[in-house]
Amino acid sequence: MLLTTSIFFFGMAQSIEINSIPAPKTFYYIMGLMLFFDCAVLVVDRFKSHIPTRLDHYWTWIGINLILGVICFYASSAVPNPHPDGPATRLEWFVLIAAIVRSAIDYAVSIGFMFPHTEDTKPA
């Protein structure tokens, strides 16, 4: 899974500029693919877990990844490629804001999973 995800990230990095020409259509398409792949991995992992209730936050991750994936696929069909020089379009700003909101929800909902509470081991 990590290898596949790293390949998606590599593809996104390569699509930032192709022959010195920005290519957002390709970037958004690969980002959408990565988010849908992440959803598939989360569904499989959730159902194969021997403690499924511990992974209930996966449904939030799946939902926010699906929403941002759909936005990215829409953006890949709506943003011109190659991108004209100049300021970002409203759609590009919307994708950026959606990605930030997705990350904020991710951390807010699953902070206990990502940073589990550890007992203070200092002597009293």
Descriptive report:
The protein has one domain (2-114). With 124 residues, it is mainly alpha-helical. It starts with a helix and ends in a 10-residue tail after the last helix. The mean pLDDT is 81. It has a two-stranded antiparallel ribbon with strand order 1-2. It has helices at residues 2-15, 24-48, 58-78, 90-114; strands at 17-18, 21-22. The protein is built from four helices and two strands. A hairpin with a 2-residue loop joins β1 (17-18) and β2. α1 (2-15) runs antiparallel to α2 and α3 runs antiparallel to α4 (90-114).
Give structural attributes.
two-stranded antiparallel sheet; 2 strands; 69% helix; 124 residues
Roughly how much helix do the residues carry, as a percent range? 55-70%
| Arithmetic mean of pLDDT | 81
Number of helices: 4
Strand order of the largest sheet: 1-2
> How many distinct domains?
1
Largest sheet: 2 strands, antiparallel
Spell out the helices and strands N to C. Answer: HEEHHH
| Poorly predicted sequence stretches spanning 5 or more consecutive residues | none
Please count the beta strands (DSSP E, at least 2 residues each): 2
Distance between the termini: 43 Å
Give the amount of beta strand, in percent. under 5%
Radius of gyration from CA coordinates: 18 Å
Provide the structure class: mainly alpha
User: What gross morphology would you assign?
Assistant: elongated
